[in-house]
Write a structure and sequence with these properties.
about 160 residues, Rossmann fold, five-stranded parallel β-sheet, 5 strands
């Protein structure tokens, strides 16, 4: 079994499979797992939607602080929020102690699986998902160490395992 020497960091659109893949990877590798959004909920006692009521910038400040906190005890698998790439410093912190994987899943598949009402930035419907993808795709590509196409969870996991 492989032993982690760095964090495995998963980035990508909401609903691309980061959390599902991260949990399974952590089990396979016998490593800790941290979903940054869940961590934020735990430390604030508020849902992501409740935090977003104070504005996206307020949420992004908490997210940046949380990323610093979870990144510095290695090794672990980290699933980030879809907008983590909006602040370059987040990527700097994550790359310092980790390898970044862009989980790229088709928007059609995401739309079939995701309850957009549960995602604060998608509450206006699937059109917003396409707009976010257009805004974020180049950032995901430029910040990742590896791009993984997610058409199947198990194949995605085996692809990641080949790189670590």
């Amino acid at each position: 079994m492989k032993k982690l020497t760095k964090n495995i960091v998963l980035i990508g659109m909401p609903g691309c499979g980061k959390t599902t893949i991260g949990r399974k990877l952590s089990e396979i590798l016998n490593a800790d797992f941290c979903d940054v959004d869940e961590y934020i909920v735990d430390i604030t006692g508020k849902s992501i939607n409740e935090i977003f009521e104070n504005g996206e910038e307020f949420f992004r400040d908490i997210e940046s602080k949380s990323i610093k906190e979870v990144s510095y005890s290695i090794p672990k698998v980290i699933s980030t929020g879809g907008g983590v790439i909006k602040r370059k410093h987040n990527i700097y912190v994550l790359k310092k102690k980790g390898t970044i994987f862009f989980i790229n899943r088709s928007l059609e598949d995401i739309c079939k699986d995701v309850d957009v009402k549960s995602r604060p930035l998608l509450k206006d419907g699937t059109d917003k998902l396409y707009k976010l993808y257009e805004e974020r795709y180049d950032l995901y590509k430029s910040y990742c160490d590896y791009e993984i196409i997610n058409e199947d969870i198990d194949k995605c996991i085996s692809d990641i395992l080949r790189y670590i």
